[in-house]
Amino acid sequence: MSAHVAELLALAAAGALDPVEAARVDQHLRECASCAAEAAEWERLVGRLGRMPAPRPPGDLVARTVEAVERRLAERSDRVWNRVALGFSVAFAWTVAVVAWMVLHLVTGELALRLGRPVGPVAAWYAAYVIVGWLTAGAAAALLGRRRQEERRIA
């Protein structure tokens, strides 16, 4: 018995050999009684394994798995949506701040020249305006994200 053919006997019994190897094993089994006996043992073992009952998952396992996968996909979608909303909020807040700065600079520059007064109070109002704008954008993003999560839970 060649060692190479002995390694192929289990695969031959399982029907996992390509036609060339299967022919070579069949040829060797006609010539070697000990390999033929070992091949018969492998075939009996494969037959017994085929009659064993297949394990069955609990009835609710599939439903729980599908639910967990759907929940994870929804969470991932929410994270992506929240990032987009936050990015939009930040871009909007910066745009509002820059535009407001330009308008304020134009207005305060003209007013300071005409009135001959310092523009300190106007700058304080501008700072308050920017802070309120940022807080409003952040609160809007948080509320929109929370609303989207609640809508996902309901659906």
What are the main properties of this structure?
155 residues; rod-shaped
Question: Could you explain how this protein is built, in words?
Answer:
This protein is mainly α and 155 residues long. It folds into two domains: 3-51, no CATH class; 61-154, no CATH class. The protein has helices at 3-14, 19-31, 33-51, 61-115, 120-154. Helix 1 packs across helix 2 (19-31), helix 1 packs parallel to helix 3 (33-51) and helix 2 (19-31) crosses helix 3 (33-51). The protein is rod-shaped and about 115 Å long. The chain starts with a helix and ends with a helix. The model has no long low-confidence stretch (mean pLDDT 80).
* Global morphology: rod-shaped
Order of helices and strands: HHHHH
Strand share of the residues? under 5%
Care to count the β-strands? 0
Rounded to the nearest angstrom, the distance between the terminal CA atoms is 66 Å
* Helix percent band: over 70%
Our count of domains comes out at 2
Calculate Rg over CA atoms.
38 Å
Largest sheet: none
* Total DSSP helices: 5
Summing up helix and strand content along with how strands pair, one would put the structural category as: mainly alpha
- Could you state the oligomeric state of the chains shown? single chain
Please, what is the average pLDDT? 80
Low-confidence stretches: none
